[in-house]
Amino acid sequence: MTNEDVPRGPSWRGVLPGLGGMVLLGSTVAVIGATHHLPSFAVQSARYAVAALGIVAVARCLRVRLVPPRGRELVWVVAGALSGLVLFNLAVVLGTRHTEPGVFGAAVACVPIVLAVAGPMARGGRPPARLVAGAVVVSVGAVAVAGWSRADIPGVLLAASLPVCEAAFTLFGARVVGRLGAWSYSAATCGVAAASFLVLSVVVERPDPAGFADPAVLLAVGYLGLLGTAVAFVLWFTCVRRVGAGVAGLTAGIAAPSTALCGFAFGAPLPSAGAWLGMGLIAAGLAVGLAPARRAAARHPVDAP
User: 170: closest CA among 187, 182, 160, 157?
Assistant: First the structure.
């Protein structure tokens, strides 16, 4: 396990940005319904354009220095955007023809396991057993919250690609977020995704801009772009920068409870008993995965960067 994958300072403080980012990401399900009647690629292009512009605007207001990617960093930025944003959403769009949403939720719930193993290995380390064990418990709990639905073979394959895409987005970012920072990497990847989906929309969908004039749509796209993407991504990669991709992956399981609880707040049925049990498992998995770091920090206190 490398230093990048060990929380520096109190571990719960280190993962708080990741927890906040996943809560915002999960909350997007409650508002995305307002855009279902619009071409999906056009919506995604608008979402990521709003996110990129929002990050730049807020960074200037807060005097956060944005660092442009250079050299090989451009490769990681483009690879992160294409894998974690473009291919991920393409898999969802295609997968909806073969499966029900619960399968996607269950698939994304496996992200903590993928990052717990791949995060340390990408830095030349070995996955810590307790971190992997915590990730497994978190993922099992997230699957219980998300549920499972029917799917055919193409649907299962497309769903299986989702945690790979999500993990790639984070792992590519982990290679450059040290110099670029969470703000710059998030803005750059959102910009690439916005341009990619714009091309796809123009070629495939040929959308009518008038469809975006509805105030409900504008509010939904604004929320998706600013809070569900811009703020969520900055928080997530702040967490990755602080504690490493492997440890940050534990927080990904929070997206499922956030989706369920936000849905209930907007009129969906109360989560089932199995979902509440799953939430308890997620909390237990976080405790298991972060426990060693907390003991190590108690013996060798290190200030968080």
Answer: 182
